[in-house]
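Problem 3 from the worked examples.
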Amino acid sequence: MKFLTTFLHTRFICLLVLGVSTLLAVNPAWSQEQEQEQAEPDIEVVVTADRVETETTKIPAHVTVITAEQLKAKGKATVVDALEELAGVSFRSTSGNPAQAEVSMRGFGENSHGRVLVLLDGRKLNQPDMASINWLQIPIENVERIEVVRGGNSVLYGDHAVGGVINIITKKGSQDVKLNAFTSGGSFWDNQERLGVTGMIGPFDLVINAEHTGSEGYRDHSALESIGAGLELGVDITDSLYSSLTLSYEWLACEFPGYLTKEDMEEDPTQSSGDTETENHHLNNMITFKALLGEWGQFQVDTFYNVKISQDDIPSWASFSNKYFHSLGTSPRLNADFLLLGFENSLTVGADLSWNILDFQRYADASRGTKECSRLITKNSYGFYVNNEFSLLDTLHFNAGLRYEMASIATFTRLGIDIDDEKFHPALVWNAGVVWEFLPKSKLYGRFERVYHYPFIDEQVSFWGYISDNFNMDLEAEQGYNIETGTEITLFERIINLKLNLFYVELEDEIAYNPDTSANENMPRTRRIGGEAGVEVNIEDFLIISGNYTYTYATFIAGDNESKFIPLVPEHDAFVEVTFNIPLGFSLGSSLNYRGACYTGSDYSNTQEKLADHFLWNGFLKYIPDFIPGKLQIMFHIENILNKCYATAAYYNSWTGITAYYPEPGISWKISVSYGLEL
């Protein structure tokens, strides 16, 4: 890995951030003349569930909000670190690092990330291909809060929103100039450096941040390095019209250590069998216009253009390729608030229009002098939706919506075997929900929703430049429904918080890779029955106990594998954490994470050995001195204290009879220092 180059890049970005912070600090616009400071976000209000600000007690779903304060208090280094502790949210990794970890919600196995929609300020981060999300493209220093809504939400968001929606909300500028810095180091030469500045320049609110992450990796040939930076500039054009520009760039280079057999993993989990390397560049741009319509509501339009450039080298397969992804889209929506029959009513009407182009090029060798294959693959979608929330009295709320969407996937060959064709996928879905606020800050809810998921482009099309390339015209979109009910109860002024959710998900034509035919196919009907439970007890901010448990019974309910379990879906997941805030600014915490056994990937007939269950024991010590200006926090983390040898991902190959295991890191430690200051 090019650590010297990265070091120089990091120094440049950090100097840029510091320069901007200095400019903000001396700018006279930073005087007391600002009439109003931006309020801190109310964690009881989220924008993800209805695409407009909605109180969580009015939402018929299991909702969790993680604030920036909570991220800092726990010393979270990445979004993955924060999410993996939540009920119903889990991750798998074949590299042992969080950069391209595969997220799962509501009991999905292989390619589970295709059934979880991930948003950044409402903009979709999911790629049209099977590549998982690069979580490091989201500098955690820039995160204001993370909203997690479990269950289907296809009406409002369309493709991917089958198991849940994760929306990462970034920070906005405020009257006070705030400077935040973070650095950490630990096992395997892990290191991270972050800088962030928020503030205002005259009428403009500004957020700028930079981040560097590096690691030699737990396993051989598993190094990782990432540099990211972001900028958001917003302005009140008039009293009722607001506009913002968001820019972000992220560079990621990482190695993949390959799989091990179970015997090799137990002998030495740090060894490597792979030689794959990848380098990615992400550039994300979004312009937002928001117009307030007085008492009637608001109109907003988000327009984005994203570019992803990937260079993949697999010498052992003589595979050398470049991929250029271009994504353009716009999402206008109108929210109208008015009285209906004398009761509060909120109507949202909108559209999601996107155009995606993959420019794929395969070369004969690493020098990329001879091109062997060149193709363009497009995925375009046009979705229109309406959603209505009607409040009967102040405690009873009804929700219903409808969406129609049409997507097309097409291939254009410039060099190589001609596989040109086009496939259309229509979708019509609807939802209905009800919420009863039976106590203050407490609710009982139920909902039904039709859901769908389009094929990834590399499921629909095999375009890699081999003789087996083809356009899979027989592959259809997934469709099904989600039913759930649950309750959230807050007692004794938030001392005790309880959550319980029960769900039923049934899908037709779920897509999976069939190793026997070497093709992606629609499977017979699948079903997921389960529940999520969580509790948090906060005693005078001295003792905080939190825990959750998720049960998922995921099976085939038709076909040759009827009654068999869906691979890579454990029945049981649990997490518990205890934190003591002791005198003199110290906090001591310990957590235990359990993941149950499950069948390995591609083992649809459940004939192979299961991927073993495991417990992980982690701990931390935090110190916040009160005699230093600003907010200084020092943390020591230790993870996998018992040095458990385990894997979250394993795949069975029926052709070779080999089960490939991908070990996760053993015992590790990290020391981090963060500092925040209002200038």
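Problem 4, a separate protein:
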Amino acid sequence: MRNLPLAALILSCTALMAQLSPTLAADEWHHALSLIGTPQYPPDFKHFDWVNPDAPKGGSVTLSDVGGYDTLNFLPAGANTASGIGLIYDQLMASSLDEPATGYGLIAESVSYPEDRSSVTYRLRKEAHFNDGTPLTPDDVIWSFQKEKDVSPFYAEYYKNVVSAEKTGEHDVTFKFSVKGNHELPQIVGEMLVLPKHWWEGKDAKGNPRDITKSTLEPPVGSGPYRIKSIDAGHSIVYERVPDYWAKDLPINVGQHNLDTIRYVTYGDPTVAFEALKAGEVEFRAENSSKNWATGYDFKAVTAGAVKKELYPLKTPQGIQGLAFNTRRKKFSDPRVRQAFNLAFDFEWSNKNLFFGQYTRSPSYFTNSEYASSGLPTGRELELLNENKDQVPPEVFTTEYKNPVNNTPDDLREHFHQALELLKQAGWVIKNGALVNDKTGEAMTLEVLMDDNTFERILNPYFQNLKRLGITATIRLVDAAQFVARTKTFDYDTVIGVFAESESPGNEQRDFWSSAAADAPGSRNTIGIKNPAVDKLVDHIILAKDHDELVAACRALDRVLLWNHYLVPNWYLAGARIAYWDKFRRPGHGPSRSDGFPTIWWYDPTAATKVDASKTK
């Protein structure tokens, strides 16, 4: 996700989609939209409760980026875009970090849609402008929509049901939909980044026409709170706060965007990036390694209090992460083979010996949310599954899905026996110590494609278990550019797939699971799923007429995905592990759905002086 503004953006996208709201009056204008009822803040609110409205401006922060970048244009498929690029752009609406499924007007001052939700109209603020002083107009919005949908595979799928955008007033843009009743479409349109048409259709310093379909290292113009100050391609990028940012005094921005500069420095791998934190070269880190968290933070700056270490609790759905099989490859096309791989994974041993007991095994594609399935299907959920009964694994109707649990060595041995039996049923047998296809003689091998070595210590014990089944497993470590290129074209056996879920699953499900996305280069259908039952359930999710229907469709989809064994589920932690040099402060009551760094934090020069002095001692 670091490769796109979709780091903050896609997660901000998903955070805007949640439970369905009551029907609002047709053509009524709204300052905010919420899919869970009434937005928390009224039209005349002064600022969000979870910010410090008096936060001082100033200071800087240096962050790490692993892998580097080769473009500042986030649209082309597989773009290896600079971290933080979303800082330079604004959206029609901005999300609240403390409210699921709620967006407040940013570029747009208000929004309206008819009762059947066949379209949505955004009314732009007259004062909105890009950071070069050019007014931001409906033409920019329309052009941005067309280009994002034409150039980006992600946006093409995400906005699939948005068929047109047209100017319908001096400051109004109306988006028309190909379907009615899609409750989230009016809102997800508001997540669109607005690009400067005049800049992209102009010429660069050498007089060459710019091309939004191509990569570029020319700093683009945006309308957001930051602009690019400098770049050193492959090494660093620096963003500086725009002091006269047009939207700085809007209630949704009060107390935010406080740091003067945000600098990303590129490191070759996460280990080096961690060493940079210890040395004070990097000043904030979101830790994703349980081992580092448990054993790596005993360096002098932590014990002296110069570096703070915190587990920030989050009330967010966790989705699922796992070893995702590329089912486009014949050897992984049989669900019995994929199930055997899951039976060989000893999560309990890994959690105790590798993760220091920090994690919980992911039981669902909608982990930590009401959309996760449990028990056996009933009611509307069962009706949806019965509509596709011939294309749904029979276990869906008879057995609650459970990951294998290894409390004792006997449990693991039993799971090995089950795995070998499944492999035998699928036509794979052990000959001379190797698992081979009984008909073709092909050896079963597994290669995991990665662009850093974080998972190596986790996978190696798992590979030893696979070896007991006669399977040879290896890691293919490539650089970031190769990783992007190979994942874009689905050139791998398996990858660590991450499928983040929102509080109201919707249109993004197509890009995750649909048959159309399976053949679209750069899509997030990492697994290559082509399943008619999945396609139909995804449509039910997107067109759910009310909250109960949405819950039923999600749970039904969850069961179908789980019982097809498309991946080996990993684990989750309902919180953010953060470490930072004690130069920064944040509001006492922070948001519940993000740690808010660096957006709502601010720089404390007095504390920074003490911290910097401690480095020399």
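Solution to problem 4. DSSP finds 20 helices and 25 strands in the chain. Residues 63 and 264 are 5 Å apart (CA to CA).
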